[in-house]
C-alpha cells in the first residue's frame, strides 16, 4: 500500500524487484555476446561494453542500430515485462490486467554513440501524447546498472501527473510540454540501484538528464486491459506497427541456395 500512496502523490515510485539483478546480468552478457559477433564473452564491466559498442558504431552505424534492435528484441530483455514483481507492482499501482503498449525498448546514452541528440536527450514530456491508451497507463524504466547523481538518469517533476495532459509542441524528440506549462521548480533526479525499477504515470512530466558517461536502460508501458473507459475507446493506442517489405529484396534471389546450405548445416551441426 505504501507504494500506491507514494505513487499517487508523486506520480512515480522506485522499487526493488526480485530477480531483476540476475536478469540485468544476463542482459549485459547477451549484449556483450551480440556486439562481439557471437564470440562467447561475458560482461566484464560497463566501460568495456561501452568501448565495444563504440567500435560497432564506428564500423557501421546502420548495423549498430540493427544490433541494438536485435538485442532489445531478445527474450532476455523482453523478460523484464514479465517479472512477477513487475506485474505485481503494476497491479498494485492500478493496472489490473497489464497489456504491453510496445515490446520493451532499449535506451543507450553515450556521447560517442549519439546519432540524433534530440531523440536521445528527451525534453520535458509526458508519454501520454504518444500512446493515449488507458488512463492509468504505467511506464516502467529499468537501468541496467546503478544510476548515481548524474549518470544520464531521468528527472521528473513530482506531482505533475495530476495536471492531466498538458499542451505540447512538436520537437526533435517528437513532442515536448509547451514552455509555459512546464511545472514550476526543479525536477527530481531519480537515483537508482541495480535491480530497482521506476514505475511512473504516463502523465508524469519527465526528461533525460544531460550529464553522464554511459547509460543503458529498458522501458516499457502497460495499459490496463480491464479499463472500461479504454474499452469504450475500442482499446485504441497511438503506437502502431509497420512493416518494410521493400528492403533487401535481392535476398530472394539468394534464398534457394542459402536455405539449402542453412538446413544442411543445421542438420549436421554438432549437438552439445
Ligand atoms: O531513457 C530516457 O532518457 C528517456 C526515457 C523516457 O523519457 C521515456 O521512456 O519516456
Short description:
The protein has helices at 2-10, 20-35, 46-59, 61-72, 75-78, 84-92, 117-120, 128-131, 228-232, 251-267, and strands at 12-16, 98-100, 105-110, 138-143, 154-156, 168-170, 175-177, 188-189, 196-201, 206-208, 214-224.
Question: Would you identify the CATH architecture?
Answer: Sandwich
CATH superfamily name?
q2cbj1_9rhob like domain
Structure summary, number of beta strands: 11
Helix content bin = 25-40%
Q: Output the number of helix runs.
A: 10
CATH fold-type name: Jelly Rolls
CA distance, first residue to last residue: 48 Å
Keywords:
Jelly Rolls; six-stranded antiparallel sheet; binds 2-oxoglutaric acid; globular; 19% strand; three-stranded antiparallel sheet; 11 strands; 272 residues; alpha+beta
Describe it.
- This protein is α+β, with helices and mostly antiparallel strands.
- It has one domain (2-267): q2cbj1_9rhob like domain (Jelly Rolls).
- It is 35% helix and 19% strand.
- The protein contains 10 helices and 11 strands.
- A hairpin with a 4-residue loop joins β6 and β7.
- α2 packs parallel to α3 (46-59), α2 (20-35) runs antiparallel to α4 (61-72) and α3 (46-59) packs across α4 (61-72).
- The longest helix is centred in the last third of the chain and has 17 residues, at 251-267.
- The N and C termini lie far apart (48 Å).
- The model has no long low-confidence stretch (mean pLDDT 93).
- Bound molecules: 2-oxoglutaric acid.
- 2-oxoglutaric acid binds next to β4, β10 and β11.
